[in-house]
Amino acid sequence: MGKKKQKAGAGGTPATVALTGAGTDFTVHAYEHDPAAASYGEEAAQAMGVEPERVFKTLLAEVDGALTVAIVPVAGSLDLKALAAAVGGKRAVMADPAVAERTTGYVRGGISPLGQRRRLPTVLDDSASSYGTVCVSAGRRGLEVELAPSDLASLTDAVLAPIGRA
User: Fold this and answer.
1) What are residue 144's DSSP bridge partners?
2) 46-73 tens-digit pLDDT
3) CA proximity to 12, closest of 1, 28, 24, 33
4) Model-level pTM?
């Protein structure tokens, strides 16, 4: 993986600023976002030429009323029951998109698990550990960061659990 770091204040997003501040190796992938794309994540995978199983989407859910971040492959979907179980909860529902945007500071389709306004409980699908690197949103549509799954888990204090389904 090439090691491209962006400096804070040099056009970086909160996600890339957080990665740079932590001294984490990462690569930025930019592509032209198509507003008509049916799936932000699948668009990113195709534009970068990366298999969809290695590109992860960031979703917000409410587990027993508490906002929780779920990071799952774009090739599948989130298993809400598994997410609730992973954080010791009983019931999970998807968060309202406006609440997700307001809480994270990012727009839908560009929500990064990194550099959010406040730290939320986070669960990373355990399939991420199968890869040397994974890609997640860098904080805006058309911008992804590639990093080691162990770094992603460490920087977000994520629990690894089987929360994705094909």
Assistant:
1) 29, 137
2) 989 999 999 999 999 999 999 999 999 9
3) 28
4) 0.91
